[in-house]
Amino acid sequence: MANSTLSTKHLLGIKYITADDINLIFKTAENFKDVINRPIKKVPSLRDVTIANLFFENSTRTRISFELAEKRLSADVVNFSAASSSVKKGETLLDTVNNILAMKVDMVVMRHPAAGAHHYLSKHIDANIINAGDGTHEHPTQALLDAFSMREQLGDLKGKKIVIIGDIMHSRVALSNIFCLIKLGAKVKVCGPPTLIPKYITSLGVEVEYSIKDALEWCDVANILRIQLERMDIKYVPSLREYAMYYGVNKKLLDSIKKKIVIMHPGPINRGVELSSDVADSEQAIILDQVENGVAVRMAVLFLLAGNRSN
């Protein structure tokens, strides 16, 4: 019989949840997708739950998506931005969170620049913790919404061919996607310049491809990542122009592929670098579907974890 509860009380990363957990989140997200397409988009599921959104790094899409998901579930929402907080005065992460929890917060959605910050917190506080991105480590809800969007296009992902293209080295999205897709039985390749592909990556069960044309001809779905210049302490590529020339996906390249593939991007897009506008805005791209699915998937995660609060 299929599980109706998650195996964990936190979402710290895809690495720490099971394929059953992922499928339960997807099934729940399908129901919530129906809700957000109704004229009245709210349900009272989390009416007695208070959620704090703690963003120690800048975010627009993820923060808005979580806030919208929380409000669609009728939760009480507290937003916290580190830029205008006592963190600037030297307050520790644990003190910050304990002060917020003293205000009787049930769940914490957090983005933090330090990998493992969520693990540290989960050992010290009682609230459910949801990882909205930690350093270059994981971004689990992005991987869930990406895989959910792929399933809408392809059905069951078992045996499907997915290529992740771009800055694999600095991308928490790539790592979470790899964990998620492999748990769902997909075949995964990564593609990008050798300087942006970490040496350990094949130990995760993925193959490496350096030719973008070969990668696109192989795959059913191409999930294209941006070059994360803000995370680079040295130059990993000679120039953005050169990157676009060798690894950018444009209409001419796509038209040379003998089949129609699905194009995805977690955003924000560097138009004209990793993706040309005529591809980003084409019928093959499901980028706006990803955004819509993000709200439904995050609603599912919040709802299911709230059900595990007493565990």
Task: Tell me what the structure shows.
With 311 residues, this protein is of the alpha/beta class. It has two domains: 14-139 and 291-306, Rossmann fold (3-Layer(aba) Sandwich); 140-290, Aspartate/ornithine carbamoyltransferase (Rossmann fold, 3-Layer(aba) Sandwich), CATH 3.40.50. Helix content is 37%, strand content 14%. The chain has helices at 19-36, 61-72, 93-101, 117-122, 140-154, 172-183, 212-218, 240-247, 251-255, 277-280, 287-306, and strands spanning 50-55, 76-81, 107-112, 128-134, 161-165, 187-191, 207-209, 221-224, 262-264. The chain has a five-stranded parallel beta sheet with strand order 7-6-5-8-9. α4 (117-122) links the parallel β3 and β4 (128-134). The chain is globular. The two termini are 21 Å apart.
Q: What's the rounded overall pLDDT mean?
A: 91
* Residue share in β-strands: 5-15%
Radius of gyration: 19 Å
Biggest β-sheet description:
5 strands, parallel
What helical percentage do the residues reach?
25-40%
Structural class: alpha/beta
Number of helices: 11
Q: CATH architecture of the largest domain, please? A: 3-Layer(aba) Sandwich
Q: What does the overall shape look like? A: globular
Straight-line distance between termini:
21 Å
The total domain count is 2
Order of helices and strands: HEHEHEHEHEHEEHEHHEHH
CATH class wording of the largest domain: Alpha Beta
Low-confidence stretches: none
The CATH H-level superfamily of the largest domain is: Aspartate/ornithine carbamoyltransferase
Spatial order of the strands forming the largest sheet: 7-6-5-8-9
Q: What's the β-strand tally?
A: 9
Fold-level CATH name of the largest domain: Rossmann fold
